[in-house]
Amino acid sequence: MTFKEDFLWGGATAANQLEGAWNVDGKGISISDVCTSGTRYKSKQIIPDLNPAYEYPSHEAIDHYHRYKEDIALFAQMGFKVYRFSIAWTRIYPTGEEDKPNEAGLQFYDNLIDECLKYNIEPLVTVSHYEMPYILTEKYNGWASRKMIDLYLKYFETIVRRYKGKVKYWLPFNEVNSAVAKFGAFLSQGILNGGSKDFMNQVDIPQLRFQALHHQFVAQAKATKLAHEIDENNKIGSMTIYATTYPMTCKPEDMLATQHMNRLMNYLCPDVMIRGEYPTYAESLYKDLGVEIKFEDNDKELLKEGTVDFFAFSYYMSSCATADPNVERVEGNILTNVKNPNLETSEWGWQIDPKGLRYSLNEIYDRYQLPIMLVENGLGANDIMEEDGSIQDDYRIDYLREHIQAMKDATEDGVDLIGYTTWGCIDLVSASTGEMAKRYGFIYVDKDDEGKGTLNRIKKKSFDWYKQVIETNGEKL
């Protein structure tokens, strides 16, 4: 077989996009809880006074908080070997500054993890996935403040000790390099500048973004070291967006633009988290951005001591790079890049490039020589229910089939790929726009963009297809 016998097949979600129950059992307000719903390509607004005139999609989401047993049972029917989910920071420490954790929040994740283990599903836990306490944004401007390191470590230590022996795979931050894109600063770092209510178009201060990123590097290194001390079986991953980028032409200027994009987006963060130090090119990158990172006395030692065990990443699309400013651009997963005329796009304009996944896996493994998990990959589409109640999502099957074939090809190239979790294995709220219409799941959830629906779970055609993929360990696509 191409894939290892113990290959981890599964799916991925995030707490703020499916749990709901935003103010239940002592949970505090997260940055996602103050974001309104949006529409395609339109930014979401931040309304911290929770004005009832607006729709807040995370407040109910798909109510996984009360229906997790039903959902995990469906994942088990597909044969999941692993389930990637995030823990909501504000369920454990409602404001982030409490001395003691919220027991009700801890117990919920005990129950969720136990439900996974009942079906022999390995938990893969994201510790911080775009849902930090909103109060820390107001008080400290998020990760722009170094105070966040100790607050995060208190939270991290609490859950790693609590779930010792139950969870061994941990991702300290989701898509930590999303802060490289200026409107990723709010999602990943809780940074708001200029009093903007529009996190996609706020005033940008690169110095704050990249200093905040440094604080996250230090926090992740400390967390990794701590997790290894608590349990030698813990495995910690670096989780980033992999923004596969091709030169638009063979002009030397486009080659240099591509190299710059790869260094800034694809390599900077993993280089620090895996190699334990800033790469030599970082000085040039930061100089061009007008950024000067402030190090504390022992930061360099901490980065060296807290390197990760595996490489985790999201892959949805590829794009191009060019020195020409007058070319067509496309949106996709927080980034705005140059359109590749050779690729088709999804309904939401994301370019579809399965062969780019094979290329990317080889590039990653050649550079880092660490086991790799692809922890996000999928197709957002407007699924239509037929008159007979079925959802014939052949387009999703085609997308996933081609990407899994690319994984097989990369494995045969020699890449050490150990797991694959499709994004949004059950329909959930889109992170970028707050829509339900942009669906990724194998399981349809009856809810629309206006918040109407029964929340009933319905298997799509892709459900049985993915079940077959898992049963045959990827041999039958």
Keywords for this structure?
two-stranded parallel ribbon; TIM Barrel; eight-stranded parallel β-barrel; alpha/beta; 477 residues; globular
Largest sheet: 8 strands, parallel, barrel
Shape from CA axes? globular
Low-confidence stretches: none
- The CATH topology assignment is TIM Barrel
Report on this model:
The protein is of the alpha/beta class and 477 residues long. It has one domain: Glycosidases (TIM Barrel). Helix content is 37%, strand content 13%. The protein contains 14 helices and 14 strands. The protein has helices at residues 15-18, 64-78, 89-92, 103-118, 134-140, 147-162, 184-189, 206-230, 252-275, 282-289, 299-305, 354-368, 394-413, 461-471; strands at residues 8-12, 82-86, 122-126, 169-171, 235-241, 244-247, 310-314, 318-321, 329-332, 335-338, 372-376, 417-423, 443-445, 457-459. The strands form 4 sheets. An 8-stranded parallel barrel has the order 1-2-3-4-5-7-11-12, surrounded by 5 helices. A two-stranded parallel sheet has the order 6-8. It has a two-stranded antiparallel ribbon with strand order 9-10. Strand 9 and strand 10 (335-338) form a beta hairpin. 51% of the residues are buried. The mean pLDDT is 94.
Task: Describe how the helices and strands are arranged.
Elements: E1 8-12, H1 15-18, H2 64-78, E2 82-86, H3 89-92, H4 103-118, E3 122-126, H5 134-140, H6 147-162, E4 169-171, H7 184-189, H8 206-230, E5 235-241, E6 244-247, H9 252-275, H10 282-289, H11 299-305, E7 310-314, E8 318-321, E9 329-332, E10 335-338, H12 354-368, E11 372-376, H13 394-413, E12 417-423, E13 443-445, E14 457-459, H14 461-471
Helix pairs in contact: 2-4, 6-8, 8-11, 12-13
